[in-house]
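Weekly modeling sync, notes
Attendees: AB, CL, MP (scribe)

Item 1: holo prediction request
CL wants a bound-state model with coenzyme a persulfide before deciding which constructs to order. AB pointed out that an apo prediction alone won't tell us much about the pocket. Agreed to run with the ligand included and paste results into these notes for async review.

Input as submitted:
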Amino acid sequence: MVDFTLTDEQKDLRELAHSFAEKEMRTVAWEYDKDGTWPQDVIDKAWEVGLMNTHVPEAYGGPGLDYLSGCLIEEEIGWGCSGIGTSLMANGLASAPVGLGGSEETKKKYLGMLTEAPKLASFCLTEPDAGSDVSGMKTRAVKKGDKFVISGSKCFITNGSYADWFTVYAKTDPDAGHRGISAFVVDADSPGVTVDKKEDKMGQRASNTATISFDEVEVPAENMLAEENHGFKLAMLTLDRTRPGVAAMAVGIARAAFEYAAEYSKERVQFGVPIAMHQAIQFMIADMSTKVDAARLLTWNSAVLLDQGKRNTLVSSQAKRFAADSAMEVTTDAVQVYGGYGFIKEYPVEKLMRDAKIMQLYEGTSQIQRLVIAKEVLLPRQAGDATPEAEAKAADAARDSQSETAAATA
Ligand code: COS
């Protein structure tokens, strides 16, 4: 049975997030965007009311919300201000691999840190020469006794300047391609960690984006997440879980632009009537409305699959791709509806258009999402549940059957 009815708890959460976005985010969003002001005050308040770390299980002090509830919150936060929103939500990206691959001790220590105080964590995957091509990373982790020594540089790290710990991906077997990457939790105050650069961005200017360097940083071996050389899969499993939230934030941006444009079209008079009376404008409004609702349906589907324990790689990429591209189209059309006024900062939609652009870039570009979708359609991996253990089992089974086939044909 398909039923889009939300539970009372989900409706309450959405209302809480909406009211927070309206009162605490929209009131400062345009001002913080101007100078790229760090929104610590908003982060503190969001943490206080329980809008951060939403997927951290209750055992580690979080609310352990389902993925659909997370998406309801992220849409409202994206509607309020996706710049501040990205900083509010980045803990989810850093903590997902800890939840999936951390030992009990690691989970208690690092997830607990986020739920005990309004602290931040960052996900360090991207490097100057390894963006879409994760396997091309150069950061190295070398085992020395009961420690790993990490050296390298990570860029475009959300909240990097303010994080207390990082999830860092590094090569532990440099000749093994994607099968030679491992993941670690690294304390930000470890000797050898340097925050190099805060980026001056086109949009989402209130979020912090930094370059982090690791110069022979010693990390205890127990801080490794999942098994050695299983970091690539951990990153992919993480992105399957976080892309629905990114898609939801894109829906929020698009919805904000659509609402502004629809309202403005009823007020602005040209040729003697409100421009909403002109079919050229009506068609734009109709397409905006359709894109917002279609993107939300894909987003909810990608989250509900996870909540049902099913693998969502295909739909997660479809949702992220469609919602991000729709946000770009809808915000661009909103500027068009405003005409010349849309292009100036006194009106709200030019910020939304700048903010929307990053949705097509971070957590996998729209082109990477298409690659994932095409692969899932043309060469589907074995369907199963979404746990890392099940993924590892399926991969082992596939490798065994490949070697059996090779032996039989030799
Ligand atoms: N869940 C679990 N395992 C997965 C997976 C997923 N969603 N996707 C791929 N894998 C596994 C595959 O099963 C394969 O396993 P084996 O080693 O056992 O064969 C392995 O990972 C490699 O998969 P694949 O061959 O599909 O990888 P490709 O190199 O072809 O593609 C892309 C990888 C390009 C899709 C990947 O590098 C990617 O997503 N890049 C974008 C990264 C990104 O989003 N960066 C933004 C930074 S975060 S802000």
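Recorded for review: Strands lie at 121-124, 140-144, 147-158, 165-171, 181-187, 193-198, 209-220, 224-225, 269-270, 273-274.
Action items: CL to compare against the apo run; MP to circulate these notes.
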